[in-house]
Amino acid sequence: MNEKEYDRGLGIKTIGMREWYTQSAHYNRYEASPYEALDALFDEYELGKSDIVVDFGCGKGRLTFYVHNRFQVSSKGIEMNPQMYQEALENQASYMQKNKQKDGFIEFEMCLAEEYEVEPTDNLFYFFNPFSVQIFSKVIDNILLSIDKKSRSVDLILYYPTMEYIEYLETTPFEFLNEVKVPRMYEVNDNERFLIFRYEALEDGQFVR
Questions:
Q1: For 92-102, what is each residue's pLDDT tens digit?
Q2: Is the pTM of this model over 0.85?
Q3: What's the farthest any 2 CA atoms get from each other in the chain?
C-alpha cells in the first residue's frame, strides 16, 4: 500500500511536511515516519498488550494510530504545536469511528516534550528527530527520574538517528539493543534505520518489561 492508501485504511490524514518558521531552532519540522519504515521496524520488534508507547513530537499522530491498530496497545502522542495537536484530535475522532472494538487507549497531550510528566506505566518512547539534543537530554532525564520512582525496563526507539542523540545516550544507563534497517530505503540512504536502546530492570534475576 502507498501512504494515501495506508492513511485511508486507518481513517486518518497524516501525509505531508510542515516547517515552523516562527519557533525556536530547538524544534524540528513535522514529518511523519513512512509506513514502509514502520512496517520494517515492527516486523522485527513486536509489542505486548502491557506496553504503553509515547511518541514525542507526534504531529498528526501517525505512529500513535499505527501501533494501536497493529498491536492494540495503548499509545500517547506529545505535541507542542496547537495546529498539529488539533489535527491529531481530528484524526483520533475519525480513527475511532473505524476501530471501536480495539483494546488499549489513545491519548494526545499538548505540551513541550521536556514538560511531559512521564508516567510509571510508560515504557516505550519513540523519537523521529523532533528536537535538538539539548531538549532530548532533558526528556531522557525525565524518563530516568521516572524509572528511579518506579523501577521498570524501558526502550527508546530512534528513527533516522542523529550522531548527537547516539553520543548523548552513550553517557546514560541506556544500552544499545538492536538496529533495524528499512530494506529498500536503506540502500539509498543509510540513515533510514531504527536504533533501539534499553534500560533493563532486573527483578529476582528476571527481565521485567
A1: 999 999 888 78
A2: yes
A3: 51
